[in-house]
């Protein structure tokens, strides 16, 4: 079946897909058991609505424009005939997490919970991951039919995979390294400031590898300008994409897990256990934390 990375990549391709409404109609029918129809095929120039399931009273708008004004305008334009329907909004291009926390003037006759009824690629992937096996098989078959050229067949070289390969060859024993007292104090201050409780021990344990990472990044950059910067940028991007997590600890682990999954899917070697690969990923994520590429810097607050 498609991995999370492959599903995300396939969903991202819809930025160029003019049939996004049809795609999401069929995908949501599989995931949620809806019987959605394209309202534009039934009723020309339907306002604020693209998809409808009359039996379950669900109406959905699929849009490449995702902002509070767009949703508010759509809500105010819903026809009175859809009284007691549940309105949902699908953003096909951007992270819609900030929209979930906004307030809206919701018509009395319409059910709309921004936290649960606004979807983007991240929230759709979560819905997919929580599906049962049979549903996952149907989703997998559907995505393969929509995107017949498997994106995993030709993997583009990745700097983040390359640095993990370099790091995996190093002897990584925390007992052989130590962090300065000043640096240790700064790390603890940032842990406390960002309320990272559950992963604090992991961060402190792996912070001793900062000198090793500096050395590896220096060697890494000899073969290409900004290679280490691209790795740190990728980690930061993953951090910024994980805005739907409840706690700071969950956000940290989500970044680590997503990077680990990406690396494992693009790993060419077969002589490293998954646990060692995950260890190397945790080390570079901790290093990104120390460099203030992820989470807030208390000195700039």
Global outline: elongated
- The residue fraction in helices comes out at 40-55%
Q: How many extended strands?
A: 5
Give a quick account of the main beta sheet: strands, pairing sense, barrel closure: 5 strands, mixed
Low-confidence stretches: 13-18, 150-154
pLDDT averaged over residues: 84
* N→C terminal distance: 44 Å
What spatial order of strands do you see in the largest sheet?
Answer: 1-2-3-4-5
Total helical segments: 15
The SS-based structural class is alpha/beta
> Briefly, what CATH class of the largest domain?
Alpha Beta
Characterise the protein shown here.
The chain is α/β, with parallel strands linked by helices. It folds into two domains: 4-146, Restriction Endonuclease (3-Layer(aba) Sandwich), CATH 3.40.91; 159-300, no CATH class. It is built from 15 helices and five strands. The protein has helices at residues 4-12, 20-32, 39-42, 68-76, 97-100, 114-117, 121-129, 133-146, 159-168, 181-193, 200-206, 210-221, 227-241, 248-265, 274-290; strands at residues 37-38, 51-53, 58-63, 86-91, 118-119. Strands 1-2-3-4-5 form a five-stranded mixed sheet, with helices on both faces. Strand 2 and strand 3 (58-63) form a beta hairpin. The longest helix has 18 residues, at 248-265.
SSE blueprint:
Layout: H1 4-12, H2 20-32, E1 37-38, H3 39-42, E2 51-53, E3 58-63, H4 68-76, E4 86-91, H5 97-100, H6 114-117, E5 118-119, H7 121-129, H8 133-146, H9 159-168, H10 181-193, H11 200-206, H12 210-221, H13 227-241, H14 248-265, H15 274-290
Parallel strand pairs: 3-4, 4-5
Antiparallel strand pairs: 1-2, 2-3
Helix pairs in contact: 1-7, 2-8, 14-15
């Amino acid at each position: 079946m498609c991995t999370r990375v492959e599903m995300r990549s396939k969903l991202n391709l819809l930025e160029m897909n003019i049939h996004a409404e049809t795609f999401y109609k069929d995908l949501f029918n599989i995931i949620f058991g809806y019987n959605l129809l394209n309202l534009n095929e039934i009723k020309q120039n339907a306002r604020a609505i693209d998809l409808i399931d009359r039996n379950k009273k669900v109406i959905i708008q699929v849009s490449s424009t995702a902002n509070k004004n767009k949703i508010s305008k759509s809500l105010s334009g819903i026809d009175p005939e859809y009284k007691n329907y549940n309105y949902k909004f699908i953003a096909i291009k951007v992270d819609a997490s900030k929209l979930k926390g906004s307030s809206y003037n919701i018509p009395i006759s319409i059910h709309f919970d921004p936290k649960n009824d606004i979807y983007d690629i991240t929230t759709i992937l979560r819905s997919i991951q929580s599906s049962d096996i049979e549903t996952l098989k149907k989703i997998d078959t559907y995505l393969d039919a929509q995107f017949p050229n498997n994106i995993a067949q030709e993997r583009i070289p990745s700097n983040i995979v390359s640095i993990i390969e370099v790091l995996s060859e190093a002897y990584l024993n925390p007992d052989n390294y130590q962090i300065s007292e000043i640096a240790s104090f700064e790390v603890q201050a940032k842990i406390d400031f960002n309320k990272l409780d559950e992963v604090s021990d992991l961060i402190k344990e792996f912070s001793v590898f900062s000198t090793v990472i500096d050395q590896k990044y220096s060697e890494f950059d000899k073969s290409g300008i900004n290679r280490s910067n691209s790795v740190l940028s990728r980690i930061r991007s993953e951090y910024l994409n994980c805005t739907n997590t409840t706690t700071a600890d969950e956000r940290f682990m989500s970044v680590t897990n997503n990077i680990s999954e990406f690396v494992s899917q693009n790993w060419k070697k077969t002589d490293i256990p998954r646990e060692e690969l995950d260890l190397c990923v945790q080390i570079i994520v901790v290093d990104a934390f120390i460099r203030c590429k992820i989470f807030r810097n208390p000195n700039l607050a």
